[in-house]
Amino acid sequence: MSNPLGNNCYCFTPLVSCIVDTPEACTIACVRGKTSPVTLADYTQFGDPFLHQPQTKATALEQIRAIDCNTEDLEAYLNACAEPCLSGVQKPFWQDWLLSDPADFLTPEALHHWYHQFYDHDFCWCVQAVGKQEIDYHFLILHPITGYHHFKQGITALKQVTGRTQRDLQRYMVAVIIGAAPPGLIRAVRALMDFQYLAQAPIVDEDGCLTIEAALAEFHEYKECITTAGARRGEKGHIIEHWQIPKLELLQSIPSSIQKVGAVIQWSTDTTERAHIDLIKKPCSASNNKDYKAQICRFLDRAEKCRSFSLATSIRENEFGRVTMDASREEDEDVEELVGEEDDSDLPFEQWRSSRPMTDYFSTSLRQEPGVGPQPCRTFIEGPTAFHLNYDPSVGSTNIDEVTETYGLSDL
């Protein structure tokens, strides 16, 4: 590639981030499920309060080359990969990619690594420590607050919990369990939440990284209070003594990831998760659940054709409308000098323009003769702003209680 001076230079695109969840990260790193995709820790070391050695590109490729087995014998090859906890992938896509390292480009992700971790573990610890009925009651008696989710039916019976709901639960949890759960458990849960909130900062400096590490260290200091309280339990209700949680081990790599590739909050799956709803879930809901893949493709193809037709008709209508708009501009030259020459006629997309006719209150005010019509004027200009007053209000009559409830004005 040539630079501005005309000199040819070798350019290499770095692989900065690959935004995936934990199982996909293990697949990309060529390791098995009970192994960290970014460090050399196995499942027995997930609860350690320190960061293990990174699973670098050189280390991973060396482990793959060390497998002395015929790759055509698939069963024997997979058995040979079991000891180093490899998945059996022989040629990962990043092996010849310069400036790429799984320990660096497998960046933490807020939705799967934090919010899902909170709902799968922290939330369950709090429910076990406080009790289902008691914690539901604590959420029920909370006053509704504008901008915050109010769980009027409790939280233990929630189904199909989304990332937004998990964030809303996280806002209340520490305040709700205070006084009802053991102090050590509260400190451990609060430390994890402090860690997650601090790590979401758009700008993190060296002091910020130290604060994040201190919050995680505080959790590991008090995590045994969770098991002592019997809050960490399995699906069948038995107490779990170990801390073999993959997402807990991934938290150790967040400060180092921030130092290498920047703030973690920029690596978000919100866009891709939203695309999954628009491109998969909605088309699938319009199918008959039989051979839905072909129906989804047909749905998306027809939707694209409709958008293309709408774009073509909008451009065509814009060409005819431009002549009329040019004629109207000649009549309102004085008004344009006052308002400014802002031209939006070149916007071809119908959805970018309002379908309702736009009234020019500047020209309406200038056409009024002084002293004629009702006073004060219904339409008038004050500096660069035009005001138009309605004679009939949108709300005819109401009382203070209705206004207070409608607009959430508790101190009206």
Which features characterize this protein?
412 residues, mainly alpha, two-stranded antiparallel sheet, extended
Percentage of residues assigned to helices: 40-55%
| Approximate strand percentage | under 5%
Largest sheet: 2 strands, antiparallel
Work out the radius of gyration. 30 Å
Description:
With 412 residues, the protein is mainly α. 50% of the residues lie in helices and 2% in strands. It has 17 helices and two strands. The protein has helices spanning 22-28, 57-65, 74-82, 102-105, 110-130, 132-140, 163-177, 183-199, 206-222, 224-228, 246-250, 254-261, 270-285, 292-331, 333-339, 361-367, 400-407, and strands spanning 379-382, 385-388. Helix 5 (110-130) packs across helix 6 (132-140), helix 5 runs parallel beside helix 7 (163-177) and helix 13 packs across helix 14 (292-331). The radius of gyration is 30 Å and the shape is extended. Mean pLDDT is 83; it is low at 338-342 and 344-350.
